[in-house]
Design brief:
By secondary structure, this protein is α/β, with parallel strands linked by helices. Helix content is about 45%, strand content about 15%. The chain is elongated and about 120 Å long. It binds one RNA strand through helix 9, strand 25, helix 17, helix 19 and helix 22.
RNA sequence: GGGCGGUUAGCUCAGCGGUAGAGCACUUGCUCGACACGCAAGGGGUCACUGGUUCAAUCCCAGUACCGCCCA
């Protein structure tokens, strides 16, 4: 016996353990099935499951389960990412609390701690993923810093270096003075703020009382100015070009140069140039061969160097600004201040202001690598779904700047480059190899830096399955079928996988990229800890069950639109899970669990044929939707069918049929059809709601220990399972019941009262149907009897279904005036409709130009409406007479 | 500033060249032995605005307004 209530938490663990132990998640490289591959976006080891993961992994799991059932050899490759900066932040915070800096404990100890912490934290996220019921091939779980992947990273670095696509250069980079490392452009957030624009007068050399006024938001950088630029066509400055100004405070002489970078419309039209502390100025500096003076150290303090006036040495950039402004004021060189809106660069993780900083770093030539990556999408070898995300992809790959890949951190892949004392570089997969290159006895020192975390992630589609070795897995599962991810990492990750995959594998990493929505809160706000509006998927699972959470996310995952997740939705879908449970209970109580030797093509009676027909349709709908990544449509089709068709109609119809012992054959067919249908429903819904379906299956259908729904075959139906006649009959039956129910409710007939039904003008076929489904109609519409008449009695309720008129002779218990009003209302509605159709049909242009089927359709609509109106009129007359 | 998306029932959202849909909420009535996390019946919409294309526009096109995102 099934429990009265469905209790998710009790069964979820049991089934998950069983699945995992049975090894059903594993791919089989030796199988002759077609492979289907999804590479899981590796969550950070620091991470814990958030609602975005829940959506991402639910959708992947649905695809994976669906394809497994359809007979593919599925590899869902799981793993985690080492998340270099994030781990540093966690560990350094822990150290800080003990008052220790990372330099004090040293690189070796720090890394030991990092690994310890990874062991501890890495399992958190994967065990949380298990709670979602996801079924990746856990036995193949990888980590971006495990031995194999580390080897792949070294190999990739060396190969790219040898191809000239990785190089070391001194460049202006985004420096995070808090984290003490370079960060990439993507990790810098442009934050809008209210700022100030200071106008400063620079005295022109050799002139008395002549100045050029420059405007700047960062006066402190003037210590590093090496020019003043004006527009070459600006008449105000034409004859100043080539002269010099005396840089206030430092009193260096710097040239006035002509460059189109300065905008004559803005401010005074003259702009100070600080090549070592501004990206635009850097470019100007390069063009004019200007000196690049770095005035800050790695803490963003002013350097302690001779060319800096003494009072500024060693002070912070903020303090330097104050001092400069005071001094300029004293010198009477401050021409004015205005308040403006501007943007400042802020570190994504640290939150501090990023300093453009001159250092030597490693770069990857992504502008070159991006070309084939862009082309692959333009050629359609990889497609984005929804398509509009291709724009985001193109805007990134088509405008690539070199990617700075070195980081001044310890946790990560240490760069495989060695230096000798003369500064020569040797890049190799290991020190031995480097030593060979350098020659015996040459003293070598390894580069201290590690690679950007995304470098190893970019290799994920092939490094996880064996690259650089030639493994069977690599040959079999590469390229992947689809990548499922959020739009926020198209730039960080997707584009880089494309670049590296095309370079190393000479093929795209996946055929489809499905971009899913962002999950927001009920009010459309982005969830964040600081706002306190995060919904913890584990709490939701506790509260509603895993199936409900999964189904909700799936049902709301419409393409191209964010998900606003509200409690009510979860409740609604939790109710749906319960509904399925109860429907199964009904089947059990009515002995509808065995369908041995039942062939759906053998069904004879209309309700059974109709149900089979509808199952066939919903199956096709689910397939079509999933094949096109229309998850919400698949979920809604399933929902409507199970609740609206199976429960509300079929099971209700089955009740009187199952009580009717007179016709044994019919009863048996109903039992078998119900049982068969329930099993189809469980199978079709298993990818979405694996637990409740597996549990019911285990209760009713499980043949032996190794029989599980998760490994069941996806249904395939004969083309013959299309029953249009049965569908027509059942639609008629639904209309009859519906009309009577509606009439009763409108006229306030007590729900408990059993009343008589008279039918006028029924065709032979209709009469036959009334006879055949008499018990069903009587029960569902709460009728005492059904009989046919030629003339309706006076003052009865009437309604029209098809050609026949349904009459409820209950004049004594209803209000005749109310009935007249009701009829008039219905007639008015139908008149409006007729008017609309007539207008159309009266329009020659419509009749001549519209496709013929549209015209005939309108004509038959009109005929039907007219017929119905006539019948309603006579009903009204009858009432009045 | 450039680009992209959105605007449909009270709310959250589907849909789509020819009858406007769902869930929740709301109203009314129900102990019809699966289910009140339920059953049944309802009410509720100038499909943001202005033009254009079309026999026909909520849907296609252009523009406007507002909201959101991405990139400078």
């Amino acid at each position: 016996m099934m429990d009265k209530n469905f209790n998710p938490s009790e069964i979820e663990e049991k089934h998950y353990r069983d699945w995992e132990q049975a090894g059903v998640f594993s791919c089989d490289p030796n199988s002759d099935k077609t492979p289907y591959t999804i590479m899981m976006p590796p969550p950070n080891v620091t991470g814990s499951l958030h609602i975005g993961h829940a959506l991402n992994h639910t959708l992947q799991d649905i695809l994976v389960r669906y394809h497994r059932m359809r007979g593919y050899d599925v590899l869902w490759q799981p793993g985690t990412d080492h998340a270099s900066i994030a781990v540093h932040m966690v560990l350094e915070k822990q150290l800080n609390e003990q008052g220790i800096s990372r330099d004090e404990i040293g690189r070796k100890n720090f890394l030991e701690k990092a690994w310890e912490w990874k062991e501890y934290s890495g399992n958190t996220i994967t065990s949380q993923l298990r709670r979602l019921g996801t079924t990746p091939d856990w036995k193949r779980e990888r980590f971006t810093m495990d031995e194999g992947l580390s080897k792949a990273v070294l190999k990739a670095f060396v190969k790219l270096y040898e191809a000239g696509l990785i190089y070391r250069a001194e460049r202006l980079v985004n420096w995070d003075p808090e984290r003490q490392t370079v960060i990439s452009d993507l990790e810098v957030i442009q934050k809008e703020q209210k700022g100030k624009m200071w106008h400063i007068r620079y005295p022109v050399e050799g002139e008395v009382e002549q100045f050029i006024t420059v405007a700047t938001t960062r006066p402190e950088t003037m210590l590093g100015d090496t020019a003043v630029a004006v527009h070459p066509d600006d008449p105000r400055y034409k004859d100043m070009i080539g002269k010099s100004v005396i840089l206030p405070i430092t009193e260096r002489l710097i040239p006035i140069i002509a460059d189109e970078y300065s905008d004559p419309e803005k401010g005074s039209g003259a702009v100070k140039i600080t090549p070592a502390h501004d990206f635009n100025d850097f470019e100007v500096g390069k063009r004019h061969n200007l000196q690049m003076i770095s005035i800050m150290d790695e803490h963003a303090n002013i350097v302690d160097k001779e060319f800096i006036p003494e009072s500024y040495r060693g002070v912070s950039r903020e303090k330097a600004r104050e001092l400069i402004l005071t001094e300029l004021e004293e010198l009477d060189l401050l021409a004015g201040v205005e308040t403006i809106k501007n943007t400042i660069p802020v570190g994504e993780r640290s939150g501090v202001v990023i300093e453009p900083f001159m250092t030597k770093q490693w770069f990857c030539d992504t502008p070159t690598l991006a070309k084939p990556a862009a082309q692959a999408v333009r050629d359609g070898r990889t497609r984005f779904i929804p398509k509009q995300y291709e724009n985001m992809y193109f805007s990134w790959v088509d405008n690539q700047l070199p990617w700075c890949i070195s980081r001044q951190l310890w946790w990560g892949h240490q760069i495989p480059a060695w230096y000798d004392n003369d500064g020569n570089i040797y890049v190799a997969e290991n020190e031995e190899e480097a030593q060979k290159q350098a020659g015996k006895g040459v003293e070598l020192r390894r580069d201290e830096d590690v690679l950007d975390t995304w470098f190893s992630s970019a290799l994920w589609p092939f490094s996880t399955i064996g690259w650089p070795e030639d493994t069977t897995e690599l040959a079999r599962y590469y390229p992947g079928d689809v990548l499922v991810t959020g739009f926020d990492i198209i730039t960080f990750w997707v584009s880089r996988m494309m670049m590296f995959s095309l370079f190393f594998m000479d093929d795209v990493p996946f055929k489809d990229v499905y971009i899913h929505a962002l999950v927001r809160d009920a009010r459309g706000q982005k969830m964040s800890k600081s706002k306190g509006n995060v919904m913890d998927p584990l709490e939701l699972i506790e509260k509603y069950g895993t199936d409900a959470v999964r189904f909700t996310l799936c049902a709301m995952a419409a393409q191209g639109r964010d998900i606003r997740l509200a409690d009510e939705r979860l409740q609604g879908y939790r109710n749906f899970i319960t509904k399925i449970w109860n429907a199964a209970k009904y089947c059990e109580m009515n002995d509808c669990l065995s369908h041995k030797d039942f062939d759906p093509a053998s069904a004879k009676s209309a309700p059974n044929q109709w149900l089979i027909h509808e199952i066939n349709i919903v199956k096709n709908e689910i397939e079509r939707s999933l094949d096109n990544y229309r998850f919400n449509e698949a979920a809604n089709a399933a929902y409507q069918f199970v609740w609206g068709t199976f429960c509300d109609w079929y099971l209700e119809i089955s009740k009187p049929l199952l009580q009717d012992e007179a016709d044994k054959i019919d009863t048996i067919e109903v039992r078998k059809t119900t049982s068969w249908a329930l099993k189809q429903i469980l199978t079709l819904l298993n990818p979405f709601i694996p637990y409740v379906t597996e549990e019911i299956y285990a209760n009713f259908y499980k043949k032996d220990e190794n029989d599980r729904l998760i490994t069941a075959k996806w249904p395939k139906y004969e083309n013959s399972l299309v029953y249009s006649d049965a569908k027509e009959t059942m639609e008629w039956l639904k209309s009859v019941v519906g009309e009577i129910r509606s009439l009763r409710a409108d006229m306030n007939v007590p729900a408990g009262a059993k009343i008589e039904l008279l039918v006028k003008g029924a065709s032979e076929r209709t009469k036959k149907s009334f006879k055949e489904y008499e018990e069903v109609i009587k029960r569902m519409a709460r009728l005492s009897s059904i009989s046919h008449v030629d003339t309706p009695p006076k003052g009865a309720l009437q309604t029209i279904v098809g050609e026949s008129c349904l009459i409820l002779p209950i004049a004594d218990i209803i209000d005749l005036e109310a009935e007249k009003a009701r009829l008039n209302k219905v007639i008015r509605k139908i008149d409006d409709e007729i008017k609309k159709i007539e207008a159309k049909l009266g329009n020659d242009k419509f009749v001549n130009n519209a496709p013929e089927e549209v015209v005939t359709q309108q004509k038959s609509r009109k005929a039907e409406a007219l017929d119905k109106r006539n019948k309603l009129y006579s009903a009204l007359e009858q009432l009045s007479s």
